[in-house]
Structure formats: structure tokens, C-alpha cells
Design a protein that fits this description.
The complex is a heterodimer of chains A (about 150) and B (about 450).
Chain A lengths: L19 E4 L9 E6 L5 H12 L3 E9 L5 E2 L5 E2 L4 E8 L18 H22 L14
Antiparallel strand pairs in A: 1-2, 2-6, 3-6, 4-5
Chain B lengths: L1 H12 L5 H5 L21 H16 L4 H8 L6 E4 L8 H9 L1 E5 L3 H9 L44 H18 L10 H4 L1 H15 L5 H4 L2 E4 L3 E11 L9 E10 L3 E5 L30 E2 L17 E8 L6 H6 L4 H25 L12 E8 L3 E9 L6 H4 L6 E5 L3 E2 L3 E3 L2 E3 L3 H12 L6
Parallel strand pairs in B: 1-5, 2-11, 8-9
Antiparallel strand pairs in B: 1-7, 3-6, 4-5, 6-8, 9-10, 10-11, 10-12, 13-14
Helix pairs in contact in B: 5-12, 7-9
The chains are: A alpha+beta (about 150), B alpha+beta (about 450).
Protein name (chain A): Large ribosomal subunit protein uL23m
GO molecular function, one term (chain A): structural constituent of ribosome
Organism (chain A): Nothocercus julius
Chain lengths: ~150, ~450
């Protein structure tokens, strides 16, 4: 971007071509904080304006950091593979709003037929394994061994 | 050779652990053998507990207060730096949870009964410090806990002439902002340009003129730009990175505060409520302090009230804080954060006063294992030049570490007001909209003294 000097024209972007991705925080964050992965070129003011103007989200404070992608994986040619770096933004919401990242893969409620089908499957698998193992009275010796 | 070198390295890393002191365990007189206790050097929880107990005993038996403070802050580890003047969102709730403080809006009743007790003739006003026991002159019992008395301030005792003090304050304000020819303030240095000198002058003159009414002020010490530090532990966390990863450590905090002015006195202010009083709940915040955001650094663990231990003025009376340019009111209004303005005042009051009162308590020999036996009371005025907020803090407990906080029902209490303007505007050599209540509150704060005086 052109460098901003005091008194100069403010840059206005009408169709920004960078993105923000809302992610689940790795460590628990306070209730009013949302965690985003943003483009590396975005600044705190950019993030604040992006959320306020495009999504009407009241933003009180933004803190950013750059996460270094690991560079110690190796491929089949023993060359080092780098995971890409990315910028993380912690956005504190205003007007007392809170945000909790939703559980995207909840445990599905099992219907009675499904539960009984699961039981049936378990019993069948047990029977097959028992047949493989053979008679316990023979102590692990296969049944073709003998006189 | 290798064994000797290893022993030397172990001594350097843990020089506070001395083998000789551990081996001298006293045996009860009726047994032939020394008592069976856990090892002191093993890598076990019992050994760690024994080392900790030995350390506590060393601090208890320290010869002087300086030695006690030196041992208390001996081990340096990364700790959270708490800044009383911060723009972090909802910082006052976080600070309350770190210091186990209950915040009570409004000032305690003793401040309200001062003008009511003042119309009594002669020296009866001298006994009006603790409001809960002051008999009203008209005989009507005070309902307690209400705002300032409705009697007009002009009826104050002949010792305190409010009109004279008001003209004094207006003179100082005009001198600093109107009469004196000052150049334009440097960028982001507005507070040092006018409000700073105004506050210094005003408080110095007020304290000097109120010496007649309050003999405690005559024996007090007024510090300019002093330093107040306090170091404490609260709660536990698991170390995340580094060679100590996985160990359970106490969460360490350090406050390094620089109030603008500070009045230290040789006698302690009286308690406002009893030591075991319960006036509310302490906000509990489950998250790590780094989410506030707070940052860690490792440096000297300092405990300091503004003067060294040998100074006779070892108790605190009043602190005066001036906000820097970063916390100007206009900045918050520009980004639509009006509610955070009061939060900054409260956070400053709570953190600064906790650090000051706790450091005073440490100067008297109390610490987290030896809890305070009497409450420590101090006052503070937080201002940004025009708006004033008043705070009063009573320290009831220093025991905030994991072991000592469990069976400790005591809480620290902070009373505080909202920020109100002292004047509306200064133009053409005239102060418009001067607020007498703020001046009265300032005068009452300065006149606060123990019952005996």
C-alpha cells in the first residue's frame, strides 16, 4: 500500500482480496475473544475495519501475532518441508457480546434400531474372534495338532 | 574431579538450600533417635514440601525486615508485570481477582460524617475520624453508608475555611493554565504540560495549609514521583515452554507503580470495617492472566513503599495519580468505549493501593505465611487533570498463595467513586463551573487521621 502520512488521503479499499478465517482457539480464550487466522499483510486497524464495515461486528481491541510454520518435516527425498506461516488475530468484541466456537462434530443421537444393530455387530465380531482363537481348554494349541 | 565440579554447579543453582541447616533437626527429649522426616534433596513431592517449609522457616526467623524482604524475593522467575495505568478492557475485574479485592462503589461512611461533625465547636472535630462511632451533634442517628451529608460546606469548622481553599485552588489552576506563558506541549506530553504541575502545586499547598487542622500532616512526608513496588504469588499454573516444562508453579505478579505524589505518615490510618468483614464477592476469572493481556518478564522482585524500611513515616496516607496521554478521555470517546473510562480509574485505584498497602504490611513484618493482624488503610486520588476519582483501600489479608488462600475467608476491600470534573472550563482568567464537592472530598481525604490525634 502507499505509505500513509499525517494529513494525506486515507486509503479506501472497496473489494479487499484478503480473507479472515475464524478458528477454534487452541488454548481457552475469554468469552469476548474470537480467534482468526488472517492474511499476513493485514494490520490491526485493517482487521478492525474489515469486521466492522463488512460484517457489522463491534470490535473493541485487536491483538495479532505471526505464527512461524514448522520447517523440520522431511519429504521422501529428505528435503526439509516448510509449513506456511500465518498471522493470528485475537479480536475482543464490544457491547458485551460473547463468542464460543461451536462444536462442529457433535455426537450423533443413536436410534434404538442402530443401537441394537451395533450390539448385534459386536456379538458377531466376538463370535468370529472366539472361533479364530479355538477351544480355550486346549491352551492355544491349534486343533490340527494331535494324534 | 567430575564429582566436585557437579557439586559446585548444584550449589550455584540452588544456593538458597544449605545442607548444614537441614541436618540439624531437633530430637524430642524422650527419644534416642532423631525424628523420621522426608528427605530434603530427593526428587519427590514430600522433599519439595520440606524444602518449602524450610524456606518459610528461614523467612520467619529472619533477623531484620530487610533480610526478610531479601529472602522473600530471592528466587527470580518470569512473572507477570501489572501496570496500574492500563487501557486493557475490563482490567479492573482481572486486577480484583489477582488481589482478592471486593470493590464497593461509593466511599465508606466515615468520609460522609466529617462535615457533619465539623460544626461542633472547638476540638471536637479532631475526634471525627472513624465515622461509625462519631455522635451526631443534632442527636439524630446517621443511617450510615449514605452519600455526603446534606449540610452545606460553608458551615465547616472554623479551622477549615473552604472559601479560602477554593480561591487557592482557582489561583493554582489559573497560574498553570492561563497566566503562565508556556510553549506548545510536545507531542503526547500534554499531561506533563499543565495538569501535572497543577496537581503537584495544588496538593502541596493544600497539605501545607491543612497542617493546622491535621497534626498528622505536619509529621508527614510528601514524596514527588516516588516508586512503589510489590511482588506476590496468586494461584498456580503449569509451565508451558522451556526446560521447566510440565512443572506446577505459582503465578507470580509484580507491580511497579509511579504515582505523581504520595503522602506517608508515621501513624497508621484507622480501620474502616473490621478485619473479617465481608462486603461482596471477588470476581473469579478462570483464564490465564496472559489473556488480559499481561506479559511476563524476569527481573528483581522488589517490595518498596517509597522510602526504605528505617524511615519513620512507614504508613501510607494518600497517593495522587495522574493519567498519561494514552488514557485520555477523548481517546476512549473517539473509539466508542465510554464505559472503559471508569474501568481505567478503578483499575488504577485497586492495583496501586493494593501494592502500597501490601508493601506497608511487609515493612511491618507480615507476609503471605504470616498474615496481617490489623488492617492497613490507604487512600488514593486518580485524576487526569480535570476529572477526579477517589479511592479508599483496606488490606485485610496478604495470604494469596495456593496453600494460604484455601482457608482464608478474609478479602481486601476497595471503595471508589466515579470520576467527576473539578471545573468546567478555564477562559479569560476565570474558572467556570468550579465543583466544591470535589474540593471538599480532597480536603476530607487530607484531614483523615487516627482517633488519638
Amino acid at each position: 500500500y502507499p505509505l500513509f502520512q499525517l494529513g494525506g488521503p486515507q486509503l479506501r479499499l472497496f473489494r479487499p482480496d484478503f480473507f479472515m478465517a475464524l478458528v477454534r482457539p487452541g488454548v481457552p480464550q475469554p468469552e469476548d475473544t474470537a480467534q482468526f487466522r488472517v492474511s499476513m499483510e493485514m494490520t490491526k486497524l485493517d482487521i478492525k475495519n474489515y469486521l466492522e464495515k463488512i460484517y457489522n461486528v463491534p470490535v473493541v481491541a485487536v491483538r495479532t501475532r505471526i505464527q512461524h510454520g514448522a520447517h523440520n518435516r522431511r519429504n521422501h527425498k529428505n528435503q526439509r518441508i516448510k509449513k506456511p506461516d500465518y498471522k493470528v488475530a485475537y479480536v475482543q468484541l464490544g457491547q458485551g457480546q460473547t463468542f464460543q466456537f461451536p462444536n462442529l462434530f457433535p455426537e450423533k443421537e443413536q436410534t434404538p434400531e442402530a443401537r441394537s444393530f451395533d450390539d448385534f455387530k459386536k456379538k458377531y465380531i466376538e463370535k468370529e474372534q472366539q472361533r479364530q482363537r479355538g477351544d480355550p481348554r486346549r491352551g492355544g494349541v491349534p486343533d490340527w495338532f494331535g494324534l | 574431579m567430575a564429582a566436585r565440579r557437579g557439586w559446585r554447579l548444584a550449589r550455584q543453582g540452588r544456593c538458597w538450600l544449605s545442607q548444614a541447616e537441614f541436618s540439624a533437626a531437633p530430637a524430642p527429649p524422650d527419644s534416642l533417635y532423631p525424628p523420621i522426616v522426608a528427605s530434603a534433596t530427593a526428587k519427590s513431592k514430600a522433599a519439595k514440601r520440606r524444602r518449602l517449609e524450610h524456606f518459610h522457616q528461614r523467612v520467619h526467623e529472619a533477623g531484620s525486615i530487610e533480610e526478610k524482604l531479601r529472602l522473600y524475593g530471592l528466587l527470580q522467575r518470569p512473572k507477570y508485570m501489572i501496570y496500574p495505568q492500563t487501557f486493557a478492557i475490563n482490567a479492573d475485574r482481572w486486577y480484583q481477582s489477582f488481589t482478592k479485592t471486593v470493590f464497593v462503589p461509593g466511599l465508606p461512611p466515615r468520609a460522609a460524617s466529617e462535615p457533619a461533625g465539623a460544626p461542633e465547636p472547638g476540638g471536637a472535630a479532631a475526634g471525627g475520624a472513624t465515622g461509625l462511632a462519631v455522635p451526631k451533634p443534632a442527636g439524630a442517628p446517621e443511617p450510615g453508608g449514605t452519600a455526603e451529608a446534606p449540610q452545606p460546606a460553608a458551615e465547616a469548622a472554623p479551622e477549615v475555611d473552604l472559601g479560602e481553599l477554593r480561591s487557592l485552588a482557582c489561583d493554582v489552576l489559573l497560574q498553570e493554565s492561563f497566566y503562565q506563558n508556556k510553549k506548545r506541549p510536545f507531542l503526547y506530553r500534554d499531561q506533563d504540560h499543565t495538569p501535572g504541575p497543577f496537581l503537584t502545586q495544588l496538593i502541596s499547598l493544600l497539605a501545607a495549609s491543612l497542617c493546622r487542622s491535621n497534626p498528622l500532616l505536619a509529621a508527614s512526608s510528601l514524596d514527588l514521583n516516588p516508586e512503589v513496588n510489590y511482588y506476590w504469588h496468586n494461584g498456580e499454573e503449569v509451565v508451558v515452554h522451556g526446560h521447566r516444562k510440565g512443572r506446577v508453579d505459582p503465578v507470580r505478579f509484580q507491580i511497579d507503580d509511579h504515582p505523581r505524589l504520595q503522602i506517608r505518615v508515621p501513624k497508621q490510618l484507622p480501620e474502616v470495617v473490621p478485619l473479617e468483614a465481608d462486603l461482596g464477592n471477588v470476581p473469579v476469572i478462570d483464564h490465564k492472566p496472559s489473556k488480559l493481556p499481561l506479559f511476563k518478564k524476569q527481573y528483581e522482585n522488589k517490595v518498596f513503599i517509597g522510602s526504605k524500611v528505617a524511615d519513620p513515616c512507614c504508613y501510607g496516607h494518600t497517593q495522587f495519580h495522574l493519567f498519561p496521554d494514552k488514557l485520555k478521555r477523548q481517546r476512549f470517546l473517539n473509539i466508542n468505549l465510554e464505559d472503559q473510562i471508569e474501568v481505567t480509574y478503578r483499575a488504577n485505584g485497586i492495583a496501586s493501593l493494593f501494592a502500597w498497602t501490601a508493601a506497608q504490611a511487609m515493612y511491618q513484618g507480615f507476609w503471605s505465611e504470616a498474615d496481617v493482624t490489623r488492617p492497613f488503610v490507604s487512600q488514593a486520588v486518580v485524576t487526569d487533570g480535570k476529572y477526579f476519582a477517589f479511592f479508599c483501600y483496606q488490606l485485610n489479608t496478604l495470604a494469596l498463595t495456593v496453600e494460604t488462600i484455601q482457608n482464608n475467608p478474609r478479602k481486601n476491600i476497595c471503595w471508589g467513586t466515579e470520576s467527576k470534573p473539578l471545573y468546567d472550563v478555564v477562559e479569560d482568567g476565570d474558572v467556570k463551573g468550579f465543583n466544591d464537592e470535589i474540593l471538599l472530598q480532597l480536603v476530607e481525604f487530607l484531614l483523615n487521621r487516627p482517633k488519638e490525634l
